[in-house]
Design a protein that fits this description.
This protein is of the alpha+beta class. Helix content is 38%, strand content 15%. It has helices spanning 44-47, 51-63, 94-101, 106-125, 179-182, 189-206, 216-225, 236-245, 256-260, 263-266, 286-295, 301-308, 315-328; strands at residues 11-20, 23-30, 35-43, 72-77, 81-87, 92-93, 128-129, 138-140, 146-148, 155-156. The chain has a five-stranded antiparallel beta sheet, sandwiched between helices. A three-stranded antiparallel beta sheet has the order 6-8-9. Helix 4 (106-125) packs antiparallel against helix 6 (189-206), helix 6 packs antiparallel against helix 8 (236-245) and helix 11 crosses helix 12. It binds ligand 7LV.
Amino acid sequence: MSKYEVLQGFYAVHDELGSGGFGKVRLATHLLTNQKVAIKIIDKKQLGHDLPRVQTEMDALRNLSHQNICRLYHYIETEDKFFIIMEYCSGGEMFDYIVRKERLEESEARHFFRQLVSAIAFVHSQGYAHRDLKPENLLLTEDLHLKLIDFGLCAKTEKGRIDKHHLDTCCGSPAYAAPELIQGLPYKGNEADVWSMGILLYTLLVGALPFEDDNMQIMYKKIQSGCFYEPDFLSPLSRQLLRSMLQVVPERRISIKKLLEHDWLNLKYTQPVKWNTIYDKNFIDRDVARVMSKYYGLETTDQMIEKIKEWNFDYMTSTYYALLHRKRNYQEIVLP
Ligand SMILES: CN(C)C[C@H]1CC[C@H](N2C(=O)N(C)Cc3cnc4ccc(-c5cc(Cl)c(O)c(Cl)c5)nc4c32)CC1
């Protein structure tokens, strides 16, 4: 008997994939399609004053539909819990991938970094900042596509409102946190994200952190200095990019717009980074809608399409996405 009544008949819950301050993430099966999903289960009692972080993450996940952001399928709130059902990323954490390979060739680092820049450029274009970028929050799919997760600390940078955050939440991990952020100075989420991306690029290319020390105070000093070791194997272009991202003074730091045009990012690529979403909320896959219309007993496929377009993030939304995922993986799309 699964502990979670509300999931009965919709999902079969399996082992834990991992946990964090919020609760736990479990592997599950979407029963109608037999597709794997990940379910983030949050216990309201455990959260206490952190409850708004769930609302923040939900708003972000609802609005940020992008090929390099973990997809929200379904959202259930009960009296004492939240259930956030999302696409399952079977490739695991980017962190483990780097550790296994020690460090990546520049071409492979570029393959992943272009996808991260795409996700963050999109997040910023929608008026958000992630604010907790680190390898643990980058997952991989079976075909090595990068998926950004964990928007619990993200912030809406309202257009026009000066996005000056104070250290309201001890944002992310200090090793990836921008100097202005750890000094508790007012900072801009977008600029802090660019710094964290610089740290991430360094870990991809070097297999180590640019600023590290067991003693937190010494690590902070290293971050404020902005001086980091550049191994000989780094190409001049990659060093130039790292230095432009790891600028201590935020105003001198490269912008995401300039980053998209940077030569290192576009080396050997004919196309610039496609940072806008390739998903179209108004385009519904007809094959999937047809199969669903039969199951939901609707007269026509078009009726089903109109229902799906409501995007209620209910079981219908998750059935649509689960079937779409099957189709994209060349499996037939059938419902019992
Ligand atoms: C270390 N963190 C604080 C939590 C950890 C929990 C397991 C999770 N995971 C893993 O660690 N695998 C190894 C497998 C895995 C597979 N698919 C996943 C799909 C989504 C998510 C996910 C997790 C969280 Cl906390 C989110 O906010 C969002 Cl939007 C998405 N995590 C997944 C996930 C990675 C993060």
